[in-house]
Amino acid sequence: MDSVAWLAFGLAFPFAMTTLGAALVFFFRGVIHDNVQRVLLGFASGVMIAASIWSLLMPAIEQAEERGQVGWIPAAGGFIFGGLFLLALDNVLPHLHLGESRPEGVSSSWKRTTLLFLAVTLHNIPEGMAVGLSFALALQNGEQGSLTAAVVLAIGMGIQNFPEGAAISLPLRNEGLSVSRAFLGGTLSGAVEPVFAVVTILLASRVLSLMPWLLSFAAGAMIYVVVEELIPEASRGEHSNMGTLGVMAGFVLMMILDVALG
Predict the structure, then answer these.
(1) What are the structural domain ranges in the chain?
(2) CA-CA to 260 of 20 to 30 Å: which in 16, 150, 154, 175?
(3) Residue 235: in which H helix or E strand, if any?
(4) Could you list the residue ranges that cross the membrane (predicted)?
(5) In whole angstroms, how large is the CA radius of gyration of the chain?
(6) What distance lies between CA 188 and its chain's CA centroid?
(7) What are phi and psi of 105, to 5 degrees?
(8) Is residue 46 within 8 Å of residue 231, measured between CB atoms?
């Protein structure tokens, strides 16, 4: 029962934090100051980088070595496939990043609000996969340490989801949506995380032998999002050192959570 309760927490917490972040639209209806946005985006980047290393790549290497495999092969291979997977989604799914005027992906007639929503939703796919795989690994091992590590990862993803919720609801409001619809858009952008987490858990339970590849796949997908989108947005314009400090703060926090608790 403890495992089931913690699994429920791990699935619900990141989504709840996205919802709380989106709720800022009820209290703050202006645009986010550039420096604040740089710090928040940088912070999210740092958390995702640290989580990719300590929560995904290192367990992938350990799992492979326990099976008598060469640890770096599934770690490197899965990492590359994860990046290529996000590259394919990035080129196919129509979406529009904050501060950009031209959408990416295939041409579409969708509204700017829809494209902004899809851009943030795209970020959340690898995060949901990461949380799902971490809990799948914990359920496979049946060890308290693995369960704690999965919970820590869910907490880290939730912490960085708070600014992401605001980063979609506030721009949606500025695009002309009502407050309630902007809040709903910010909330729904995070719904993809528990969905992909559950799907990943179900799939991973059927291919346990591929767990090292799957863990590193999620790491590669997250690093792609960080390098392709979050860090460039955090470094845009003058005083980009604020974004850099945000990256360092997020990295240190997630590293401490992983090492001290995981």
Answers:
(1) 2-27+38-261
(2) 16
(3) none
(4) 6-28, 40-61, 73-93, 114-139, 145-162, 182-204, 210-231, 243-261
(5) 18
(6) 14
(7) 85, -170
(8) no
Dist. CA 195–CA 58, nearest whole Å: 25
Closest-CA residue to 253 (of 148, 119, 156): 156
Is the distance from CB of 116 to CB of 212 less than 8 angstroms? no
Cβ atoms within 10 Å, residue 88:
10
| pTM (predicted TM-score) | 0.85
Q: Can you state the percent helix, strand and coil of the chain, rounding each to 5?
A: 80, 0, 20
Rounded-to-integer distance, Cα 235 and Cα 242, Å: 8
Per residue in 112-146, pLDDT (tens digit) is 777 777 877 887 888 999 999 999 888 887 777 78
Secondary structure, 3-state, 196-209: HHHHHHHHHCCCHH
Residue-level length of the chain: 262
Q: How far apart are CA 143 and CA 62, in angstroms?
A: 15
CA nearest to 52, candidates 201, 220, 198: 220
CA angle, corner 59, sides to 234 and 204, nearest 5? 95
Q: How many angstroms separate the Cα of 69 from the Cα of each of 74, 87, 133? A: 9, 28, 20
Distance (Å, whole) CA 190 – CA 161: 8
CA gap 99, 30 in Å, rounded:
15
For residue 45 the two structure tokens come to 């980047």
What are the two backbone dihedrals, phi and then psi, of residue 103, each rounded to the nearest 5 degrees? -75, 160
Hey, what are 139's tokens?
Answer: 């359920």
DSSP H stretches of helix in 30-95: 34-51, 58-66, 72-92
Residue of 240, 225, 254, 239 whose CA lies nearest to 160: 254
**Alpha helix positions (H), 190-240:** 192-204, 211-225, 231-234
The C-alpha atoms of residue 253 and residue 255 are separated, in whole angstroms, by 5
